[in-house]
Amino acid sequence: MQELIEQAWNDRSLTERAEVRQAVEEAVAMLDRGELRVAEPDGDGWRVNEWVKKAVLLFFPLRGMQTMEAGPMEYWDKIPPKRGLAERGVRVVPPAVARYGSYLAPGAVMMPSYVNIGAWVGPGTMVDTWATVGSCAQVGANVHLSGGVGLGGVLEPVQAAPVIIEDNCFIGSRCIVVEGVRVEREAVLGAGTVLTASTKIIDVTGSEPVEYTGRVPARSVVIPGTRPKHFAAGEYGVPCALIIGRRKESTDKKTSLNEALRLF
Fold first, then answer.
1. DSSP H/E element including 231
2. Hey, is 14 helix, strand or coil?
3. Distance from CA of residue 257 to its chain's centroid?
4. What is the DSSP secondary structure assignment for residue 13, as one 8-state letter?
5. Secondary structure of 148-172 in the HEC alphabet?
6. φ and ψ at residue 16, rounded to 5 degrees
7. What is the pLDDT of residues 181-209, one digit of tens each?
8. Which ranges of 99-186 would DSSP assign to H, the alpha helix?
9. What would the pLDDT profile of 26-58 be if each residue is shown by its tens digit?
10. Where are the domains of the chain?
11. pTM, entire model
């Protein structure tokens, strides 16, 4: 399957062949079932499966536009929403939408929100109201994506890493995480934190600042901040993120509210 997809990526005329179309369809079906992932843990890091991204990109031109209905709501698109949610053990509150080709693990909860194709959402994770999980974003187990969180999507370039939120993270309301940023396990992002590939993430807990870009260390507690920068027109504050501590028992108690909400 991978070989056929790689060949078709380099020569799009091959998508006319039945076996190639079948390979692309099956790859996306496996994404939908959670049997394939665009990116997956690899030791202490993550590995991007570029060929799976290629399958998603090849999938779009193989499908025609169609009218889809969900109750009184009508859609005009190429990719239908996920089906069989009850059998999967997933709670989806109207009018939330998870697109076919995304994966929602058993115990995941979607309030009115959106999960795009290629994304992976782990067990016990809450995708809260108006949160968006972009294409190919990877969200671990027991994560809370609070209201209005935006996780960026990425399909091209195929070698680009997606946004990764590891297990047991708490992502505060209106946070934005884009451009392949990795938030490591059990980290907490305070409301309104914006992380891009170039955002300076500064640990201010010690006597000297320690800077990171592209990743939030495990168990970090992060809030929005600014730092001065000189421009031709003067000095202005530019956005950054501040690590102000490490997750403590008191923080864990706050986030444990999510489990109580799911159970009761």
1. strand 220-231
2. helix
3. 22
4. G
5. CCEECCCCCCCCCCCCEECCCCEEC
6. -75, -15
7. 999 999 999 999 999 999 999 999 999 99
8. none
9. 999 999 999 999 999 998 899 999 999 999 999
10. 1-63, 79-263
11. 0.93
Residues 172 and 54: their CA atoms lie apart, in Å, by: 32
Identity of the amino acid at 249: E
H-only helix segments in 63-133: 85-88
| CATH fold group of domain 79-263 | UDP N-Acetylglucosamine Acyltransferase; domain 1 (2.160.10)
The span from the CA of 116 to the CA of 218, in Å, is 26
Residue type, 103: Y
What does DSSP say about strands 73-77 and 66-70: parallel, antiparallel, or unpaired?
A: antiparallel
Residue 31 near residue 101, CB atoms below 8 Å: yes
- In 10 A of CB 168, how many CB atoms? 22
If residue 83 lies in a helix (H) or strand (E), which one and from where to where? none
Q: Which residues, other chains included, contact 251 with Cβ-Cβ below 8 Å and sequence gap of 6+? A: 170, 188, 221
- Which CATH number fits the domain 1-63, given the four candidates 1.10.357.20, 1.10.166.10, 1.10.1520.10, 3.40.50.300? 1.10.166.10
